[in-house]
């Protein structure tokens, strides 16, 4: 059964990072994210307005897979993660 | 154009609330929530595991409508809100 | 596959609670906890020294089951929860 | 319809930044800010007394535009943002 | 010379307050606020979306007058205040 | 009329700062501070015991002047400020 | 030798306190405070603008006397204290 | 071998507690504390100046005994505990 | 008698650390951890999902030994520790 | 009369500090600490288990001397201090 998690990722890149290194890093991050979006494990990614941060929903087999996906993010060493396991809400019309 | 917001609602009901009053309050909350879910303005509601809290996504016309919906929640006087305006993430495959 | 979670529960009972009501509540809490310990879903419970708090490990099917167990705690309305999803650590000799 | 947001921006420039680079950065920041002030999207900017920070009001089409403006700030990589969506207050005489 | 201050007021009314007492309190608060808005000392009041809070700008003679206005709020005993003295921002086109 | 403010300044100098640069910076800070003390605008400065911090009282024309003084501190780029506007206390015997 | 301390006192009176009890409490607080002001041990008391709080300076023989004075405050059970021991600042012109 | 712990206890008694009940509670707390002081398990207790709090050192057999002592405090239901396990410091002349 | 402690270790390695130095450091960390796991003093180590952190249980002779083990960690200079002494929980079926 | 203070010192040395410089710094710190221990002004120093921190008790003439001692610590530029003035506790059997 699929497990849902909300993950907020706050990114702190050093402002003086080499532009080419930065561009490469962001390109790899984007490709990595889109691969997991296409596989259905990362069904939502939203930009938090005005912040270098995103709020995402993951749909995974369990804790191990979520860790594997997040740990593999090219930007992981620059990120602070806030992780919230989710369950079905009793008022959710999709589950009534 | 529709605006997206993430809202986390933490609920603190007094443990000694009258059971009938509590049941009525929760019934009204559920009905109110489901009405806005059905209208499409509250497309997601998730229970935060192990907490009396939910993480929701709202899709509204703008700030005024979001405030109107949240302010009208029967549980509003017992809630602490954390509100995050959302925008399209450049890596989102739904917008590529 | 079993999912592991660490859960810290901080309890705040009103000091003026009726002693009989309190004794009954704690007896129900203990019975409830021990039922889930015996089923194998709550394999560890430790008292945090000097605090009305415990640190527990849960082994569950997933987020839904963890929520169901925690939500059902007789002391739940008096508790603040801190929940940490766990995965295998690469240095763990039990998994080498 | 115009959406209002309060944004507090706290700036942390490295004290040993090259003076010419710093002067250039601040000149671009000022020009960028004034362009959005003139367009009416950034109607207020106040210095927070004694701090390298400002408190601003933005009037935008919605979340996307606010993000675009803030993300484009030359000082963005050095800023911490606190964003508060605003609505009409029922006591506001301008809306009575 | 007029001094500007940003004030965020967070309101915490007891949910079980007597409805008539509450209505009277809110009516007095509104009248009090509008009197100071009309005099020009409280030029802006915004609702913070989804919260029982407002973000206001005050234009006063100085610290004493600001304190007098805030201390006199009928809701003052239920409020938590965050106060930020403001000055002219060097990028503000209104002062260039 | 004079406005009073309490300002706590926490200083964080890089431990590896060049000693001559550091000595020059501190000498300029001292001279700057004493100039404003002599003018009567900085009537009190206290060392916070055991911390690289001071607690000061400023007596200024208003917010603009306070900002101007603080912004001009040679140590400003290394400081975190906490600013509290002050008013007459009704129990103060100096104002009875 | 006299020891200086800065003390910030935040007051939280229950809004529904009996008015006569409250008036009596505040009268005793004022008398108590003024007695220590007149003795020279409480040389400064400032209202923090917009808050039910004061920032005070005490000049006492040492820790014991400061504790005795604060503990004896009629409002002590309703106060949260922040205490900062002070020493002479090397830039203070009063000590050069 | 004896284990040392630093424990800070912050006390929050309801201001409207019945005076006789309060006096009885405090008398029992004092007797209980002094019994453990005399046994050598609570070798230090200091009042934190200006606060209803103490900082204590405990010398116990281990975690179990520390928990037993703290849990048995008559004021325990009104206390917030901060517990720091201590070890020998390599600069301590008593252990050189 | 064995003492139990929960320890959460948050790791912050500089992203630009030399890869060989990093690999060597992590190899030494793993060997060091596994040596204490094999001796029975470090019976549990869990990865916190999505974070460079672990939650561990230690079973040691007392405070001195726990400090010795943690202080000796090759990653210690890069870690922030949160330490919770544990005792037997009265509901634990393993101790009934 | 002697004044007591509890001081917690948290140390943050850069992990890449030159080993010889570090050794020299720590040797000077140890000698400095032991000199004040021998003089009786620093009667207790405890290691906080698992942290680069100590909890100390100082017995000094007053605030000035405490500041002088702490400011002179070779590690001072790398330390964060938490300072608690202490007084006699009414339950202390040493003062009954």
Strand order of the largest sheet of chain A: 2-3-1-4
Q: What would you give as the CATH superfamily of chain A?
A: Dimeric alpha+beta barrel
Number of helices of chain A: 2
Poorly predicted runs of 5 or more residues of chain A = none
Keywords (chains A, B, C, D, E, F, G, H, I, J): Aromatic hydrocarbons catabolism, Isomerase
Enzyme class (chains A, B, C, D, E, F, G, H, I, J): isomerase
Catalytic activity (chains A, B, C, D, E, F, G, H, I, J): (S)-muconolactone = (4,5-dihydro-5-oxofuran-2-yl)-acetate
Pathway (chains A, B, C, D, E, F, G, H, I, J): Aromatic compound metabolism; beta-ketoadipate pathway; 5-oxo-4,5-dihydro-2-furylacetate from catechol: step 3/3
Write a structural description.
10 copies of one chain form a homodecamer. With 96 residues, chain A is α+β, with helices and mostly antiparallel strands. Chain A has a single domain (3-95), classed as 2-Layer Sandwich (Alpha-Beta Plaits). Helix content of chain A is 30%, strand content 33%. Chain A is built from 2 helices and 4 strands, in the order βαββαβ. The longest helix of chain A is centred in the N-terminal third of the chain and has 20 residues, at 19-38. The interface between A and B is medium-sized, with 27 and 27 residues. Strand 2 (44-48) of chain H pairs antiparallel with strand 4 (79-88) of chain J, so a sheet runs across the interface.
